[in-house]
Amino acid sequence: MKVSLVQFNIIWKDKQANFNRIEDLIQNNSCDLLVLPEMFQTGFCTDDKSLAETMDGETVSWMKTVSMDYDSAICGSFICKEGEPIFNRFVLVSEGEVVGHYDKTHLFGLGGEGDFIEAGSTKVDMVVKGFKIRPIICYDLRFPYTAFNDSDYDVLLNVANWPSQRIVHWDALLRARAIENQAYVIGSNRVGEQDGHFYPGHSSVYSPSGEQLVHSVKEEVLSIEIQKNKIDETREKLPFLKDRRM
Hints:
Blueprint: E1 2-7, H1 15-26, E2 33-35, H2 58-69, E3 73-81, E4 86-94, E5 97-103, E6 126-128, E7 131-137, H3 144-147, E8 155-159, H4 167-181, E9 184-188, E10 191-194, E11 197-200, E12 203-206, E13 212-216, E14 220-225, H5 228-237
């Protein structure tokens, strides 16, 4: 499966400008799965309820159009509302239809995310091209014991707005998650500056053995072909997951 990570400078609260920039970046790209960052159409905004949309809103509609126009699945997170509750919601769209969604479980208290957004509580797996994908969002990466401490997936996929001052944690945690679960790990981050915070990119894909396959610190689309047999080979060569007791 060919995966493309769209790493770009998100324009603050300007949905259409961000849609346009993504389309500019992917216009000559061909892949099976496009991965966008967390809150890709607004930036990491935790205090403006007017930005929240329903699943019938413009963002999901745009994702459906892109999936059809580019013959590719597409995923990312945005602020979603279902009645009164508002969630930081990851959505995966393929062939013009929503495959599934996941609501961020661990909300970033330091940034006031929990004052505005409701926490999710359910792990979700989604399938693209035969790969079982488990999505998580940014801060979830720090809590493996509740989110993904099993090997019942092929790809752990994290979409994020992860800032420069903690980027060493991002790099280390992505690699650790790949090694401890012997699965591919995809981390999609942004670049640029927003509200006094700087974002250095570092979008990456790690192999099931923890090897960094792609990495970038600039605005661009990173593409990589991942292979299902590499997961099986890694787990057969070093079958330590069978010894897990918790």
